[in-house]
Amino acid sequence: MTRRGWLLFAALGVIWGIPYLLIKVAVREITPASLVFLRTAIGAALLLPVIVAGRGDLRALLPRWRPIVAFTIIEMAIPWLLLSDAERHVTSSLAGLFMATVPLIGALLSRVSGRHEPLGGRRVVGLGVGLVGVAALVGLDLGASNAGAVAKLAVVVVGYAVGPMIVARKLSDLPTLEVVAVSLALCAIGYAPVGLAQLPRALPSLEVIGAVVVLGVLCTATAFLLFFRLIAEIGPVRSTVITYVNPAVAVAAGVALLGEPFTVGTGVGFVLILAGSWLATGRAAAAGPGRREAVVQGAGPAGRLAGGEE
Known about the structure:
Helices cover 74% and strands 0% of the residues. The longest helix is centred in the C-terminal third of the chain and has 29 residues, at 206-234. The protein contains 14 helices and no strands.
């Protein structure tokens, strides 16, 4: 890998690992709906001018408005709201680690749907190891008292896994950056009535304002621009390795900056989930039709495409 490639990879590892921390800070004073609105509005406001300046043709997306709307709802609108709400009850490090299961669920869904190569022994073992990691995380750290938050995080994981499939199967011939920018704009428009109505009457603290701005500018708009440059620099398959770096950053950031505990459940779940993800998805990225799908899934847990988000 070139020096430029390493720099882009390291930058994205951090940028897509810190949204969970930023969300945790922001929801202290801002409702989840307002946070989703502000994040998507900022991201769209920055990306759309870049596309227009680059002479992108947004009108080419109009015939595909149905899958684009579906992608927006499944990948952004529902997951980002539920993730923000769940983080009012669980730590940011646990939320970030839970999102590391997205490759596991994506691998399972792509194969049971019959749109990918059959499950082999390695992948079955990987899925099993990853699920044991989730069980350890839930049983040792989250528990029954946070069952609601766990359910919301589970929906987020499924959304993050299904969203890339829509892109890979329905939108693969369209410029991905344009699809992301339009989806951000649609999400912002959809959340505008509730998001604006729920904005706090008093100006939030500088810490919260900074978290929202960084989330929108750095973790959404800038991250996507860097990700596509990373793909151009090192290739789509190698770019998906970023998926395994983001959870580590999320856990480290939560523990170091927010004083969140690093428990036995976190340690055991971290090792098993990442090992399971690697085993379940290790060789699938080299396949033809699944190659683009793997690329899209690598776009970050805090908004994968986000990724996350995210």
